[in-house]
Amino acid sequence: MDDDKKSQIATFRFGVIHDLVGHVALEPGEQERLIREKCDRKWVIPFSDKTRITRSTILRWVKLYKDSGGRLEVLANHDRCDQGKSRVIDEETGLALIRLRAELPKATLARLIREMEQRRLVSPGLILTSPTVYRFLLHHGLMKATQALPEDRRRFEAELPNDLWQSDVMHGPVVEHEGKMRKTYLIAFIDDHSRLIPHAEFYLSESLQSFLKALEDALLTRGLPRKIYTDNGAAFRSHHLEHVTASLGIALLHARPYKPQGKGKIERFFRTVRSDFLPGFRGDTLLELNVALCFWLTDVYHSRTHASTGQTPFARFTAKMECLREAPANLRDYFRKTARRRVAKDRTISLDGRIFEAPVALIGRQVSLLYHEGEEDRIEVLFDGQSHGLLRALDLHVNCRVKRDKNNNIEIQSSGRSRTYKGGSLWGKKGDQ
Fold first, then answer.
1. Domains and CATH numbers, the chain
2. Model's pTM, two decimal places?
């Protein structure tokens, strides 16, 4: 069968099982209902006269697809007649491997390979690898199908301070805030090279706004890192955060879903907070919690020799200060939100339900508005990268008195002679002028 036919078959089969192998977890009984529906309907199956698909066939396709890690080609027909058999391991080595597996039933693949080599049970010229041994043992029923291959994980450490920061959020204690008991969230950054904490603070939410505030404080305190390694939470995936970091020349990296091992250093710091700091905290409010954390970081954590580096975090961080990048003086401007708007013919721009006036020269232009959330009275307008100052809130009462002279210059006319109402008939007596 040629590759084009195989591709059509694989595509058809994926179309049958796509809702069974998606990332959305199915409710109990939902998978069985979907399978029954697929078995009951008639299909136009490529290169086949059959119109029905059995339950066992559907489950086999699902298993093939999931076991392969989501590779489409495994759903195609294969020409090999030795599917599942090793074409690398010869018979003598295979028999020795089976006997060794019986002797060491709980040994890892790495240990089996090492034992085979040390006992000289591998045929000359043959190199055993974990995937090859895994497939061989799986085919002979000597390894659970659900047992995953060992993942190549390696310890690492950034070469210089501010090369890499790790960041995450930890659920904190409940504190009193404005007369209510509120849960807290610790947002922290750790320098991968020195283990120094550029910033850590408890907030009342783990929202994007809280994370941006923590990041801004960290950058002001310790300078700009080259990379920030974060989780996959909604706050860390926002386009606003990506824009902020990119404009500062910081690479924003994300951990793989359900793989927390890459953030081991920040997770280890959180364990230290839980075991060393929180048990000794005596206070009730959010302010007291953050003041105590600040003193603990300065007097204890940053001054204590770290077991992994053999130095205090502060000493290791400051040993190579020449490579640190200072935050720009206008750092806060980098954290502004951006909105795109077109200036109307009457010079107005609408933003978050409010109306502003733009310069006359920008009428009809597509402009960028830069502002901080909650500070909509200070909105800078940019066109072609050039600033045109701050927008002014629209005042309809002033505009109704704006006139222009013959040179098109603005004149604001007074409302004329004021008349004070002194009571009596509102419209005056009949005949009054």
1. 3-75 (no CATH), 94-132 (no CATH), 164-323 (3.30.420.10), 336-397 (no CATH)
2. 0.55
